[in-house]
C-alpha cells in the first residue's frame, strides 16, 4: 500500500513539474501566435503549403514563442514576484530554478531557429530570430521598464509570426504580408492596455511604467478607442492589397463593430468588468479575423 501511495505521489509530482515547465512557455499566447503564423502561410501560398512545411513552421513557431516566454519569465522573475497576476509563475514562485528556466529558454530558441533554417528556409529562420531578439532584449529588457510606450513599440515582436508563415510558404515578403504585420502591431496596444487598466495597481507596485500608471485611466481609455478605430479601418483596407474578399469584409465589419463597441463602452464607463470584456473580446477579435482570412483564402480562393 505504501509503495502504491509513493508511486502515485511521484506521478503527481512529475505531473506538476511538467505543468510548471509548460507554463514557462505561456501556451495560451503560443496558440494565438501559431494561428497568425498559419494565416500568413495559407494566404501567402493561396492555399495549404506542403504538410511538412506547415508542420515544421508551426513547430518552429511554437518553439520560438515558448523560448521567448521562458526567457521573458527568467528576466522578469523578480518583478513578477511583486505582481498578483504573475507571482504564481514557476520562476517567480521558485518552483523552477532561474538557471533551469534560462536553459529551457535558450534551448527552445536555438531549436526553433535551427528547425526553420534547416527544414524550411533561411528567411523564416531570420525573421523568427529577429522576433525573439526583439521581444527578449528590446522589449523585456529595455522598453518595458523604461517607457509607457513599451507595448506600442514592443508590439512589433508579436506581429512577426505571420511574416514567418508568409516567408515559410513563399520564400519572400510582399505588401500583403506587411499588412498582416501592421494589423497585429496596431491591435496589440488596445488589447494589452485593457489588461493594464485591470492590473494598474500591480504595475505600480512593480514600478513598471505602463500607460495607465504614467498617464492615468482616462488617457488610456481614449488611446484604446483610437487604436481600435485604426485596427478596424486597417482590416477594411486589406482587400485593396489582395487580403480577403467579400466574405472577409463581412466578417471584419461585424467583428470590428464589436471591437469599437467594447472600446467605446470602456471609454465611457471605465469599470474593471468593462475592461475585462474589452481584453477578452480583443483576443477573440484577432482570432476571428485570422480565421476569416484563412476561410476566404481556402473557400473563395
Please tally the β strands and state the result: 0
Count of DSSP-assigned helices: 13
Globular, elongated, flat, extended or rod-shaped: what is the shape?
Answer: globular
Give the strand content: under 5%
**What is the helical fraction, as a range of percent?**
over 70%
| Count of spatially separate domains | 2
Classified in CATH, the superfamily of the largest domain is: UbiA prenyltransferase
**What is the fold named in CATH at topology level of the largest domain?**
Tetracycline Repressor, domain 2
> What is the terminal separation in angstroms?
63 Å
Radius of gyration: 20 Å
The overall average pLDDT, rounded, is 91
Instruction: Give the helices and strands as they follow along the chain.
Output: HHHHHHHHHHHHH
Helical/strand content category: mainly alpha
Give the oligomeric state.
single chain
Largest sheet: none
Poorly predicted regions are none
CATH class of the largest domain reads Mainly Alpha
From the 3D coordinates, which CATH architecture of the largest domain would you assign?
A: Orthogonal Bundle
Short précis:
The chain has 301 residues and is an all-alpha fold. 80% of the residues lie in helices and 0% in strands.
Description:
The chain has 301 residues and is mostly helical. The protein has 13 helices and no strands. It has two domains: 12-171, UbiA prenyltransferase (Tetracycline Repressor, domain 2, Orthogonal Bundle); 174-301. The termini are far apart.
Amino acid at each position: 500500500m505504501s509503495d502504491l501511495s509513493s508511486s502515485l505521489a511521484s506521478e503527481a509530482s512529475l505531473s506538476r513539474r511538467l505543468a510548471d515547465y509548460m507554463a514557462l512557455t505561456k501556451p495560451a499566447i503560443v496558440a494565438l501566435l501559431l494561428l497568425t503564423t498559419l494565416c500568413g502561410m495559407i494566404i501567402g501560398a493561396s492555399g495549404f503549403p506542403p504538410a511538412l512545411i506547415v508542420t515544421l513552421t508551426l513547430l518552429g513557431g511554437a518553439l520560438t514563442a515558448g523560448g521567448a516566454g521562458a526567457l521573458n519569465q527568467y528576466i522578469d522573475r523578480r518583478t513578477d514576484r511583486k505582481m498578483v497576476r504573475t507571482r504564481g509563475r514557476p520562476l517567480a514562485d521558485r518552483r523552477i530554478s532561474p538557471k533551469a528556466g534560462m536553459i529551457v529558454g535558450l534551448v527552445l530558441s536555438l531549436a526553433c531557429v535551427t528547425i526553420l533554417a534547416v527544414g524550411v528556409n533561411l528567411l523564416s529562420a531570420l525573421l523568427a530570430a529577429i522576433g525573439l531578439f526583439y521581444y527578449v532584449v528590446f522589449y523585456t529588457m529595455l522598453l518595458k521598464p523604461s517607457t509607457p510606450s513599451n507595448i506600442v513599440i514592443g508590439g512589433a515582436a508579436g506581429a512577426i509570426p505571420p511574416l514567418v508563415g508568409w516567408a515559410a510558404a513563399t520564400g519572400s515578403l510582399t505588401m500583403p504580408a506587411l499588412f498582416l504585420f501592421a494589423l497585429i502591431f496596431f491591435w496589440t496596444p488596445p488589447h494589452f492596455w485593457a489588461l493594464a487598466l485591470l492590473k494598474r495597481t500591480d504595475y505600480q507596485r512593480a514600478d513598471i511604467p505602463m500607460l495607465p500608471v504614467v498617464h492615468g485611466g482616462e488617457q488610456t481609455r481614449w488611446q484604446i478607442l483610437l487604436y481600435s478605430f485604426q485596427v478596424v479601418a486597417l482590416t477594411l483596407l486589406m482587400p485593396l492589397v489582395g487580403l480577403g474578399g467579400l466574405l472577409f469584409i463581412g466578417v471584419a465589419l461585424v467583428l470590428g463593430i464589436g471591437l469599437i463597441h467594447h472600446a467605446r463602452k470602456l471609454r465611457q464607463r471605465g469599470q474593471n468588468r468593462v475592461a475585462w470584456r474589452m481584453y477578452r473580446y480583443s483576443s477573440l477579435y484577432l482570432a476571428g479575423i485570422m480565421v476569416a482570412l484563412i476561410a476566404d483564402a481556402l473557400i473563395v480562393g
